[in-house]
Specification:
Enzyme class: transferase
EC number: 2.3.1.274
Largest sheet: 11 strands, mixed
CATH topology of the largest domain: Isopropylmalate Dehydrogenase
Catalytic activity: a fatty acyl-[ACP] + phosphate = an acyl phosphate + holo-[ACP]
Family: Belongs to the PlsX family.
Helix content: 40-55%
Strand content: 15-25%
CATH architecture of the largest domain: 3-Layer(aba) Sandwich
Distance between the termini: 25 Å
Order of helices and strands: EHEHEHHEHEEHEHEEHHEEHH
Number of helices: 11
Subcellular location: Cytoplasm
CATH class of the largest domain: Alpha Beta
Number of strands: 11
Length: 329
C-alpha cells in the first residue's frame, strides 16, 4: 500500500507535514509513504534515521495558495501536488494527500488523476460532527459551485458507499439539503434531484434542513457545492465564535475561572468533537484514485489521521466499489 503525500502543501509545510508522515510511518509499518517535494527541504525535518517505509520523491516546484488552479496545474508540471497526482494516475501510489491549494487539488484530481468512468462531477466530502458522535458525511462541499440533478444523484450513491465501506455503517440514511422537509420544497435543482434520489438504490429519507443536520437526522447529506460550502463555513465560524466567547467569559472573573477549571475536561471533549484534526481530511470522491484534501492548517496529528483515513479507504476497496456501482458492473 503506497500513499503519496504533498510535503510542500499547507500552512505548515514542509515541517509539520513531514513530521506527521513520519509518525504515521512508524505507526503503520506496512504502508509505504512517498514524500513528494523539494528533497533538501524535506530532509531538514527528518530527525535521526528515516523509516524504511518512507521514500522521498523529488519535485522542484510548488503551487502557492493564491495561484489560479487550472493555470497552476497545467504550467507547474513538476510541482509537488501534480507529481503526487501523477503517481496515483500511473499506479505508483493508491492514494495522495495534500493540505495545499484546494482549487488546484480539485483540478489535479480532474486533469491529472482523472474521473471514474460515468462520474460527471467529483465531490468534496466532509464529516460534520453530531451530538451522538456518529457524524454526518456531507457532499459536495465546494468542488463544484454549479450542479445538475444527476450530479446530486451520483453524490448520494458515492456517499452511501463511503459510509458503508470505510465507516462500516449499514444502510446509511441519505438526506437532501433543502429549505424545508416537504417533498416539493426548494429550487428547481432540489425538486428534480428529489425525484431521482427517490428512485435510486439508496436509503433516501427526503429533505433535510440545515438546522437539524448536527442532530444526526441523516447519515449522508447531499447538496450542491455552493450551498454546502456556505453551510460548512457558517458552522466553522459559529463554532469558532462560541469557543472564543466561552473562553472570554470563563476567564472574566475569579469565580468563572474556578468554574472553568471544573469544566475543563468537558470543554476539551467538546473541542475535540469539533476539531478537523480528528478527521484528517476530506476525500474527493469521483476521481479514479483516492485523493484526500487535508485542512490548510494541518499539523502533525491531522496528517497522521489523514494517512489513517487513506489506509482504511484503500483496504475497504472504496474506489473500485464506487466505479463498479456507477458502471453497473
Amino acid at each position: 500500500m503506497r500513499i503519496a503525500i504533498d510535503a510542500m502543501g499547507g500552512d505548515h509545510a514542509p515541517a509539520l507535514i513531514v513530521k506527521g508522515a513520519l509518525e504515521a510511518a512508524r505507526e503503520w509499518p506496512d504502508i509505504q509513504l512517498l514524500l513528494v517535494g523539494d528533497t533538501p527541504r524535506i530532509e531538514e525535518h527528518i530527525e535521526g534515521t528515516m523509516p524504511s517505509n518512507v521514500k522521498i520523491i523529488h519535485a522542484s516546484d510548488v503551487i502557492g495558495p493564491d495561484e489560479e488552479p487550472v493555470k497552476a496545474v497545467r504550467r507547474k508540471k513538476d510541482s509537488s501536488m501534480v507529481v503526487a497526482g501523477r503517481l496515483v494516475r500511473e499506479g505508483q501510489a493508491e492514494a495522495m494527500l495534500s493540505a495545499g491549494n484546494t482549487g488546484a487539488l480539485m483540478t489535479t484530481g480532474l486533469l491529472v488523476v482523472g474521473r471514474i468512468e460515468g462520474i460527471e462531477r467529483p465531490a468534496l466530502v466532509y464529516m460534520l460532527p453530531t451530538i451522538d458522535d456518529v457524524g454526518v458525511l456531507a457532499l459536495d462541499l465546494g468542488a463544484n459551485m454549479d450542479a445538475k440533478p444527476e450530479h446530486l444523484l451520483q453524490y448520494a450513491i458515492m456517499g452511501s458507499i463511503y459510509r458503508t465501506k470505510v465507516q462500516g455503517l449499514k444502510n446509511p440514511r441519505v438526506g437532501l439539503l433543502n429549505v424545508g422537509t416537504e417533498a416539493m420544497k426548494g429550487n428547481e435543482l432540489s425538486k428534480a434531484a428529489y425525484s431521482l434520489l427517490e428512485a435510486a438504490p439508496i436509503h433516501f429519507i427526503g429533505n433535510v434542513e440545515s438546522r437539524d443536520v448536527l442532530a444526526h437526522n441523516c447519515d449522508v447529506l447531499v447538496c450542491d457545492g455552493f450551498a454546502g460550502n456556505i453551510m460548512l463555513k457558517t458552522m466553522e465560524g459559529t463554532a469558532g465564535m462560541l469557543f472564543s466567547t466561552l473562553k472570554e467569559t470563563l476567564t472574566s472573573s475569579f469565580v468563572n475561572k474556578i468554574a472553568a477549571s471544573i469544566l475543563r475536561s468537558s470543554m476539551q471533549k467538546l473541542r475535540k468533537k469539533m476539531d478537523y484534526k480528528e478527521h484528517g481530511g476530506a476525500p474527493l470522491l469521483g476521481v479514479n484514485g483516492l485523493v484526500i484534501k487535508c485542512h490548510g492548517s494541518s499539523d502533525i496529528k491531522a496528517v497522521k489521521n489523514g494517512v489513517r483515513q487513506a489506509k482504511i479507504a484503500i483496504e475497504s476497496q472504496l474506489i473500485p466499489s464506487i466505479a463498479a456501482e456507477i458502471s453497473g458492473k
